[in-house]
Amino acid sequence: MRINKYLASKRYCTRREADDIISEGKVFINGKRAILGDKVSESDVVDVKWRAPKYRYYAYNKPRGITTHSSQDDEEDIVGSIPLKGVFPVGRLDKDSYGLIILTDDGRITDKLLNPEYEHEKEYRVETATKMRPSFKEHMEKGVDIGDYTTKKCSVTLLGPRLFSIVLTEGKKHQIRRMCAALHNDAIDLQRTRIMNIKLGGLKAGEHRAIEGAELSAFLKSLGF
User: Fold this and answer.
1) What is the pTM of this model?
2) 3-state SS assignment for residue 160
């Protein structure tokens, strides 16, 4: 097994990080400094003179009216509204939506979390402007033509005549609002309540909490770390 793959399999770091620390001379195989492309077996002694950065992860309840990125004029964005320094939001919620956003300083998780090919679940609670049609749930779940794209299959739970929850594994821009519009309704209230195993819980608008312990371990494991 190549040394970078070995280090990643032992969860020292990612393969990309392994290439960097090998190039920096911080990895040794049987006492000899490793080079890129070296192979290693379970009987070899691998010594890594490097410590992974201690990344931070937070669950944040984004209030209505706060933009996720790139605020304009008198708008306020997440980074400017929180006391945490050096973290950034992973993913987006539009200005009029609210709920769970993950904040971190770990750039490794961005593609793993947002790339739709990995199909990580995100759950939302949605209120519609008018009573949903009897076929609403069926059409939402099988996929909706939103103009330039047909959404993937999803799961919908009806909570009331104008209230439902939806679990998606993708995240096109304004997707839920566009899905509702395509089915002749409007989403007037949209809250994200879960990202994978991370739940919004009792966080109040504008509050954050650290993601740690077993919750963090399960989250990172699902992302391949």
Assistant:
1) 0.80
2) strand
The CATH fold of domain 53-115+208-225? Alpha-Beta Plaits (3.30.70)
Cα–Cα dist 11/2, whole Å: 14
Q: What is the per-residue pLDDT across 45-89, written as a single tens digit (0 to 9) for each?
A: 999 998 877 899 999 999 998 988 766 667 788 888 888 999 999
The 10s digit of each residue's pLDDT in 143-157 is 999 998 999 999 999
Q: Where are the domains of the chain?
A: 3-48, 53-115+208-225, 121-195
- If you search the block for the tokens 């509050």, which residue do you land on? 207
| Active-site residue, 94 included | yes
Rounded Cα distance, 37 and 221, in Å: 26
Residue 213's contacts (CB-CB under 8 Å, 6 or more residues apart) are none
pLDDT of residue 8: 83
DSSP letter string over 81-142?
A: HSS--S-EEES---TT-EEEEEEES-TTHHHHHH-GGG---EEEEEEESSPPPTTHHHHHHH
Which among 77, 94, 105, 189 is annotated as catalytic? 94
User: Any idea what DSSP says for residue 150?
Assistant: B
CATH architecture type of domain 3-48: Roll (3.10)
Q: Report yes or no: 185 and 136 within 8 Å, Cβ to Cβ.
A: yes
Dihedral sign for Cα atoms in the order 211, 225, 199, 69 = positive
Contact (CB, 8 A) for 122 and 167: yes
Q: Which of 9, 31, 8, 30 is closest to 21 using CA atoms?
A: 8
Distance CA 87, CA 84 (A): 7
